[in-house]
Amino acid sequence: MGPWFEGATASRYLVPYYIYNIIKLTKSSDLSVEKIRQQLNLMLPKALGTAELSGMRTLAGFARGVLACVDEMEDRGEILELLNSLYLYGSSINAWQNYRMKWGLSSAFRIPTRKEMVDMAGRASESYI
């Protein structure tokens, strides 16, 4: 699985786990622009690096660009719009990766037939008796 697994994990951390939660927190509180910057600079760099090392240079470059822009922005609304664009782009990549990874795994590992599954279950139940 290698880079696919690492890349899927990195894109999942970068976008749904980090960016989404920062957006949600920013919308539901009166978090200052400085605190938003601190959150982004604290949470994103590691996931960004992993995404880049996994071959997702476009996503990593976009996220780095967002970080650079946010460092110069003062309007919360504009920051939210920019973070939302990164979130939407990253979510589409994440969805595509999860779809692709699933099919890649199924071609790498044969899916057992029903008869084989019943046979495995029978052997498993015998091991507990």
UniProtKB/TrEMBL annotation:
Query: Which protein, by its recorded name, is this?
Result: Uncharacterized protein
Annotated source species: bioreactor metagenome
